[in-house]
Design brief:
Largest interface: A-B, 55 and 55 residues
CATH architecture of the largest domain in chain B: 2-Layer Sandwich
Number of helices of chain A: 5
CATH class of the largest domain in chain A: Alpha Beta
Number of helices of chain B: 19
Largest sheet of chain A: 5 strands, mixed
Radius of gyration of chain B: 27 Å
Number of domains of chain B: 3
Strand order of the largest sheet of chain A: 2-1-5-3-4
CATH superfamily of the largest domain in chain B: Aldehyde oxidase/xanthine dehydrogenase, molybdopterin binding domain
Number of strands of chain A: 5
Number of domains of chain A: 2
Structural class of chain B: alpha+beta
Distance between the termini of chain B: 62 Å
CATH superfamily of the largest domain in chain A: Beta-grasp domain
Strand order of the largest sheet of chain B: 3-7-1-14-11-12-13
Oligomer: heterodimer
Largest sheet of chain B: 7 strands, mixed
Helix content of chain B: 25-40%
Structural class of chain A: alpha+beta
CATH architecture of the largest domain in chain A: Roll
Helix content of chain A: 25-40%
CATH class of the largest domain in chain B: Alpha Beta
CATH topology of the largest domain in chain B: Aldehyde Oxidoreductase, domain 4
Strand content of chain A: 5-15%
Strand content of chain B: 15-25%
Number of strands of chain B: 32
Chain lengths: 161, 764
């Protein structure tokens, strides 16, 4: 089947077998390797992306579900000059990466949260990332980073780059 | 070394690999794609124990797209390997010994073709009786699991002892005696990235393999042996690794040999990546263990003597379990003074998967048992659990229960005092006692630990590092030790920057590649910072001496007259020279700006025959307090808060060290409350993250941490170790808090809600 959608601001069109997942399209057809394979079962969140601003696990999202949608992957998250945005900078500054495998999905979960709730509490942050498993960090520095980026973004009136 | 450190210990330092990770640009092994790359899939055993009666791979070769199929016959000596016990095969030989045991591997043009090839293999297994009970494993009539018993004693893989005097007369005359048994379940590493390798055939008949392993040199040597190649022909390159925690060595070596052979046979790159279910079933685990402790004390609560018995489930193969058994034995009676103490540990084969290295390496189980035990003993004396520990814990100059003298400053007392003060301990011990309203009960509990640094009696403990400055001033640093997320590349970079006086950003720390890095032993035992850090320091100091020589030549003075300020070299008279000017001059006068460093942990000796000696040259220490809330109707436990203090010597990379502590605690929560990889009659009961739940962001509470930086003279800038020990106090602290909340003493970890609910009801 043919699927057309927008990825990181660019129009794409792919012809794929019916049950192809968004994860497979991103990695195999579009070469966007920043979206990670963790469980292929919807359990770990390593493959999380934004579909029309909503956090979705791309391993359990089928091709037809994204037809006509706008998808953002980690490759679409950066500042105006291609460097790290404020969220990514906060992840570095707060030591929120260890092995880094959950990091892309975690950053997208954080971005999805701030789209809906620009002033999250720590508990709200924890709820927002609860389906994104991390085996290395114990989550605290990730929560620190998201909290700091949210405060910073709110102080700048919601703008970020 | 100077007291004014600029980079080492600076809290602003970021991980050297953070940028590529937050941008999604880090390329893990599963992200590598090479032209014409084939995909390999495994045929694994569906049963726990059986004899291979028929294994016909010919039909697989008929499947469209399939290019090659391998069995044990395709490797030297049937692919036998393994250290310290040579009991495993690259692919099962004659027998299968656990569910998930790899039997054959198929390479094909697509993953689907490879799966079809696996399906087509004709496999006939004659089922053998399953050995799932560790006690029964040692009985005479029980079928043998290994092809050859390593000790000539059936399924006994090893027996480890500690003999420090005779505890039995002292136990007899003790005023108070306690004897308890604990059952600790298996634990799965559950790294987010599954195991994988990509092998690329080379024109010289060799193979280059990208592998997400921990110890690339051992991988290289194993692959070379079973492939019948010289080590020069096998090159292991380590890409970023998506978590390991001890868990990506042995079976990754098997995949390396399998994919390597397939690549050589087909002349094409071969990718072999496990899916999650296969990762759960085929990978090794933390050993399920049964610990029985008996300790006697005098009427004042001074410990007199103790004896520990432990049985560790090695499963189908030994892997690292005999060494984990050594570490467990050396810690089994905890961080306390005894007049006499003995330990007997059996490592046994079963068909319960197989076990190997996992963070804590035996001390996770040992400390869990001894800290739940000591808490109960404190209660026998109606003493405060922290007071009781302080009364009996070892300090510098005391003897550990293993009989050796604690040679260095022990930060244990300070750790216990810190967690007591910051957790509001005394007030909560009182206020949480005697709750009767509603269904929620709060509790607060403590646990502490010591953890031997480095490999200890397991073997020679060394590492090497190299540092080079290129003509364009680029500085490259390399170690044979790997960074799988724990931050060792950052630690080494900071050490080199400190010694050279340059900004860490100027240094590029390479990843290990067996063709360019120097062999450095395994990256295990939390030894990277201390051993690899010292090797880095030594290499960099050598290089800095060469630069001083160049500066002294230019400034016409002796090297001793030069002092350093930041990146400047300052002589007695002239203008200071910048780092880059000194490098330029060094090249002009023909100096080689390359140095190697080697460092080895001071030698110690443990006598395995007599159970005496010095197991480790030093220890790290720590204590944790957990606060929990138990729902007495459901038995579910919520961890509300944790306070953790760790003495890891000087902290070199604070953000990373903090992250290690927090992440270790999260794994400890999993071990204590929700994980537990169970086997029923040898069949694994988990296959994914739904059936094996690891802690999520709501199940790990806010954690307060503190590092007690007792300086270890031998460590780089005074550093010791921290990655493993920081997890081992968490589970027993939680169990002790559960007791405080409910009056129920856990005898099994994890504490399952259904069990706890029953116990609470029975106590009511």
């Amino acid at each position: 089947m043919k699927v057309s959608f927008v990825v990181n601001g660019e129009d794409v069109s792919v012809d794929v077998p019916k049950k192809t997942t968004l994860l497979t399209i991103l990695r195999k057809y579009l070469g966007l390797m920043g979206t990670k394979i963790g469980c292929e079962n919807g359990d770990c969140g390593a493959c999380s992306v934004l579909v029309d601003g909503e956090l979705k696990k791309s391993c359990v999202t089928l091709a037809r579900q994204v037809d006509g949608c706008s998808v953002t992957t980690i490759e679409g998250i950066h500042d105006g000059s291609g460097g790290p945005n404020d969220m990514q900078t906060a992840f570095m500054e707060y030591g929120a990466t260890q092995c880094g495998y959950c990091t892309p999905g975690m950053i997208l979960a954080a971005e999805a949260l701030l789209l809906k709730n620009p002033h999250p509490t720590r508990q709200e942050i924890r709820v927002a990332i609860k389906d994104n498993l991390c085996r290395c960090t114990g989550y605290q520095q990730i929560v620190d980073a998201i909290e700091a980026a949210a405060a910073d973004r709110a102080a700048k009136g919601g703008h970020h780059d | 070394m100077t007291d004014e450190l600029k980079f080492v210990g600076n809290p602003d330092n970021k991980a050297v690999d953070a940028l590529e990770k937050v941008m999604g640009k880090a390329r893990y092994v599963g992200d590598l794609v090479f032209p014409g790359m084939l995909h390999a899939k495994l045929l694994t055993s569906p049963i726990p124990h059986g004899r291979i009666v028929k294994l016909n791979t010919a039909p697989a070769l008929e499947v469209p797209g399939v290019k090659a199929v391998l069995t044990s016959e395709d490797f030297v000596d049937h692919g036998a390997w393994g250290w310290p016990v040579r009991d495993i095969y690259v692919l099962a030989y004659q027998k299968v010994r656990y569910v998930g045991d790899p039997i054959a591997v198929v390479a094909a043009e697509t993953p689907e073709d490879a799966e079809a090839g696996v399906e087509a293999i004709e496999l006939e297994l004659e089922t053998l009786p399953v050995v799932s009970d560790m006690t029964r494993a040692l009985e005479k009539e029980t079928p043998l699991i290994p092809l050859t018993p390593p000790l000539g004693k059936g399924n006994l893989a090893d027996h480890l002892i500690v003999r420090n005097g005779d505890p039995h007369p002292l136990l007899k005359k003790a005023d108070v005696k306690l004897k308890r048994s604990y059952h600790l379940l298996h634990q799965e590493h559950a790294y987010l990235e599954t195991e994988g390798v990509v092998a690329i055939p080379q024109p010289d008949g060799g193979v280059t393999v990208f592998a997400n392993n921990q110890s690339p040199f051992i991988n290289r040597d194993t692959a070379a042996e079973v492939l019948g190649l010289s080590t020069e022909l096998v090159r292991i390159i380590q890409p970023p690794v998506g978590g390991s925690f001890g868990g990506k060595d042995d079976h990754v070596y098997q995949f390396t040999a399998q994919a390597g052979k397939l690549a050589i046979l087909t002349g094409k790159p071969v990718s072999l990546i496990l899916d999650r279910k296969q990762s759960f079933h085929t990978s090794y685990k933390r050993q399920g263990s049964v610990v029985t402790l008996e300790v006697g004390a005098d009427k004042d609560g001074n410990l007199l003597a103790g004896h520990g018995d432990m049985v560790m489930d090695s499963g189908a193969y030994v892997s690292m379990t005999t060494l984990a058994g050594f570490r467990a034995s050396m810690h089994l009676l905890g961080t306390y003074r005894y007049q006499a103490a003995t330990v007997d540990t059996d490592v046994v084969y079963t068909n319960n998967g197989y076990s190997g290295a996992f963070r804590g390496f035996g001390n996770t189980q040992a400390a869990a048992a001894s800290e739940m035990f000591i808490d109960e003993l404190a209660a026998e004396f109606e003493k405060d659990p922290i007071d009781f520990r302080l009364q009996n814990c070892i300090v510098k100059g005391n003897k550990a229960f293993t009989g050796n003298t604690i040679a260095h400053d022990a930060g244990l007392i300070r750790s216990l005092e810190w967690v007591r003060e910051h957790s509001g301990w005394e007030k909560k011990r009182r206020s949480f006692a005697g709750q009767t309203k509603g269904n929620l009960r709060q509790g607060i509990g403590v646990a502490c630990y010591f953890h031997g640094s480095g490999l200890g009696g397991e073997g020679t403990d060394y590492a090497r590092a190299t540092i080079t400055i290129e003509r364009d001033h680029t500085i490259t640093l390399q170690s044979g030790l790997t960074d799988y997320g724990q931050g060792s590349r950052t630690v080494f970079t900071l050490i080199a920057a400190e010694v050279l006086g340059v900004d860490p950003k100027q240094i590029y720390m390479l990843r290990p590649d067996t063709q360019t890095a120097l062999e450095s032993g395994p990256t295990v035992a939390s030894r990277a910072s201390i051993v690899g850090g010292n090797a880095t320091r030594i290499a960099t100091e050598k290089l800095e001496n060469v630069l001083r020589l160049a500066a002294s030549d230019k400034m016409d003075c002796s090297a001793e007259q030069i002092h350093r300020q930041g990146d400047k070299f300052i002589g007695p008279n002239e203008e200071p020279m910048s780092f880059n000017d000194v490098v330029d001059h060094a090249f002009e006068i023909g100096l080689q700006l390359y140095a190697q460093g080697y460092w080895q942990i001071p030698e110690i000796h443990w006598d395995f025959e007599t159970g005496t000696g010095i197991p480790y040259f030093t220890y790290s220490y720590g204590a944790q307090v957990a606060q929990v809330e138990v729902d007495i109707n459901s038995g579910s436990v919520r961890v509300e808060h944790i306070w953790a203090a760790h003495d890891g010597g000087k902290i070199i990379f604070p953000k990373g060290a903090h992250g290690q502590l927090l992440g270790g605690i999260a794994q400890g929560i999993g071990f204590g409350l929700m994980e537990g990889f169970e086997f029923i009659d040898g069949y694994p009961q988990s296959k994914d993250f739904k059936t094996y739940h690891i802690p999520n962001a709501l199940e790990v509470p806010e954690i307060e941490t503190h590092f007690i930086e007792s300086r270890l003279e031998e460590g780089p800038f005074g550093a010791k170790n921290l990655a493993e020990p920081v997890m081992i106090a968490t589970a027993p602290a939680i169990a002790n808090a559960v007791f405080h909340a409910t009056g129920v003493r856990a005898c099994q970890l994890p504490i399952r809600a259904a069990w706890l609910k029953e116990q609470i009801a029975a106590n009511a």
